[in-house]
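Suppose a colleague, Dr. K., hands you the sequence of a protein chain of 232 amino acids and asks what its three-dimensional shape might be. Before reaching for any lab equipment, you can write down a predicted structure in token form. Begin with the sequence itself:
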Amino acid sequence: DAKGTVALSDGTLRLEGVNAQLAGGALALRASLDGTAASPLLAVQATLTGAELTGPLLDEPFDLTAGTLDATVTLASHGFSPDGLLAGMTGALGLTVRGGALSGIDLPALSAALSAAGAASEPAVRQALDGGSMGFDALEVKAVLAQGVVHLEQARLSAPSGGIDISGDVALPDSRLDLRLKLRPALPPDGATVAPPDIGLRITGTPAQPQRAPMLADVIRWRAERGQQHGK
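The predicted structure, expressed as tokens, is then:
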């Protein structure tokens, strides 16, 4: 159900006033392709409001699998091919997801593993960082693009089981990841005064084959301090 205007003049192709329905939400789009520049210039502005995600977005190990999405995109790039356009892309991205679900990590299981007594919970901590899925209340992302690299300026997920802060970069031409997650699990009160640990997880590789490197030094310190308070 898309409507809009397509115009070609002075060597520039324009899409103006494009409005469409996408996944139950409203999409507004304008774009242009200027063929008079030294290399073709593509410019895109788009806004998506109230789209309903009912399955995996990218079908990758880390993925959004449910939620209501709002997004804004402003992009520009010079190039003669899709690869060239990706490599030179600049712009900004904004994304908000409400009432969503995420695959690839299990924050509730991580909270349960930290709440368990004894060193036997460490394998459960690693397992929670190595897969699974979780629901969340909100995910907010702000990013900028420069020369084909998406840099996360602000990315935060909030859930009843805790929160996740995400930083790092995604290189679009070869889909290379360099992300750092800081997980802040919510733990039930147990009488100890030691604050729950922040758990680091670095993700490299590609979306299809992510490589995970947990950083558990704070977990080891936290368990030792909590054990001392409980006289263990």
